[in-house]
Design brief:
182 residues; mainly alpha; two-stranded antiparallel sheet; two-stranded antiparallel ribbon; 7 helices
């Protein structure tokens, strides 16, 4: 019977629709991305072959920016996934891992996926997605990171990345582990 798989799909859609009723679009998108990553599902797998159309849209220009310190043109990290980004930054401490996740959400993601204010429940799924160890007391890690001066408190239990935390992730990580030559 072909109806059984179809019924399961409909049931899943109904459950998703019900779960998403209380979520804003950005939160719903984060949930979908997290579930797809958990199930190791790539949307490119399901992409249909390009269809020829008389109303073909021109390709979008490739965005670049100039790093004024190095005078080079770099592609933005917008297409970077959180796991690759965390590996690139190689955070060593719980504070650094929290900062890397916050930086990714606020500076690498774009559009409705972007998150500017964080609490423990926002960050935890991204620790898992990045394959970073989830701190046993993530709320306390956020307090410690704030007390170290890397983030600012936005409201009770909610924090924002500040310039000090931004600069640490952007310019100091990964920490240079090579011995300095004389």
């Amino acid at each position: 019977m072909t109806d059984k798989p179809r019924n399961k799909e409909i049931e899943a859609l109904e459950k998703l629709a019900e779960a998403f009723e209380s979520l804003d679009p950005a939160a719903a998108l984060r949930v979908v991305k997290y579930v797809l990553d958990m199930k190791s599902i790539s949307l490119e797998t399901f992409a249909s072959p390009p269809q020829q159309s008389a109303h073909k849209s021109p390709p979008l220009p490739e965005e670049t920016h100039v790093d004024k310190n190095k005078q080079t043109i770099q592609k933005p990290r917008a297409n970077s996934d959180i796991r690759s980004f965390a590996q690139e930054k190689s955070p060593k401490s719980e504070n650094e891992r929290a900062l890397v996740v916050m930086f990714y959400l606020s500076e690498v993601l774009t559009g409705e996926s972007k998150v500017d204010e964080f609490n423990a429940s926002v960050l935890e799924p991204y620790f898992k997605q990045a394959k970073l160890p989830v701190p046993k007391h993530l709320r306390q890690v956020l307090v410690n990171t704030k007390n170290a001066g890397y983030i600012d408190q936005a409201s009770a239990g909610h924090y924002k990345l500040n310039a000090v935390g931004y600069n640490l992730v952007e310019h100091k990580l990964p920490a240079n582990t090579e011995p300095k030559s004389k």
